[in-house]
Amino acid sequence: MTLLGLLVYLLPLRLEASLSSDWDTRAGLWAGLSSCGRLLFSRQQYHLRRLLTKILKKQVLSPGIKRFELDAAEIARKALPGQFVVLRVNEEGERIPLTVADTIPDRGILVIVFQEAGKSTRLLGSLCEGDTILDLIGPLGRPSHIEKFGTVVCIGGGVGTPEIFPVARALKQAGNKVISIIGFRNKDLILMADEMESVSDELIVATDDGSNGTKGFVTDMLKQVIDRGEKVDHIFAVGPVIMMKMVSKTSEPYKIPTVVSLNPIMLDATGMCGVCRVEVGGETKLACVDGPEFDGHKVDFDLLMARLRTYLPEEKQSLELFEAAQKIGGCCGGKGACHA
Ligand code: FAD
Ligand code: MG
Fold this sequence. Notes:
Strand content: 25-35%
Largest sheet: 7 strands, mixed
Bound molecules: flavin-adenine dinucleotide, magnesium ion
Helix content: 25-40%
CATH topology of the largest domain: Rossmann fold
CATH superfamily of the largest domain: Nucleotide-binding domain of ferredoxin-NADP reductase (FNR) module
Mean pLDDT: 87
Shape: globular
Distance between the termini: 35 Å
Order of helices and strands: HHEEEHEEEEHEEEHEHEEHEHEEEHEHH
């Protein structure tokens, strides 16, 4: 994509962000401007797909969690573990950041797995095989740092499991001993256990209610692994913010480097708007270009959780309007009934 094209795409986003009430601190402004400079002078190539992107395959992995295979060859060829894409379903659609859950480069397939959290992900989930998504940009963000650490624990919570999967696979391929811990509220919500097992030396499944696997939280399992004398050299964790906070708190006394993948509210995802700013080690960072992975021992998780709640009333209202429209048959990607 040309520099001019990138600017044409980003300018409205920058204005949108400036006008929003979220644009309220000098730290955010500075972070946005400095990363904008870095972006313009960097050699990174973004694939902005203005072409419609086709959904080749759709699966329901567990209630409210869907897996799409997308026809997106350029992104599939380039994406690395830990990176993400941003998509918009239609012209009025919000931008939805989603982690690259997998790629099948030789078939040009990009895999996303998402939880229907609100209006935009519900709309996305209502699309059917053969439907198209208006635009898709990626791969974005810094890839995970993969090397031979020794023994690595990979932790996925809920929909964080598909997100940690490519990271665990890359760590295994790099020669690490991979111990994976995946946690869910109950057995009906378990997903990708077979895939995680295939890239792990050991897989521990935890459910909050004990309906499958071991009863307890992923942090209990992590503590058990450390306390049984396993020399853990590195931890990667993806999941709800509270889970990543507790994992980081658990590993801190043992001084085990812990990487978490942050999911703040994100708008342009290229470093221009500053909406996804997070605080790491007392510094303002932008999750989109500096992350999304950060040192869990330095992240201000409480600030992140507070900022994720900023627009709750608007999100609730938007979902209610969407559900009302669905009842009168106005949704499903505009194509009538859809089975899943
Ligand atoms: P809403 O009702 O609008 O919001 C529900 C909650 O989601 C909000 O309270 C807020 O906390 C959060 N949210 C809302 N808008 C955004 C936004 N633009 N960006 C981030 N969070 C938002 N989810 C997945 O299920 N699978 C993934 O692989 C995945 N990867 C992500 C990677 C990154 C880098 C980021 C930043 C987020 C990722 N998310 C992922 C979260 C996903 O983007 C949000 O759940 C989604 O945007 C919510 O939109 P909504 O309109 O459906 O829900
Ligand atoms: Mg939304």
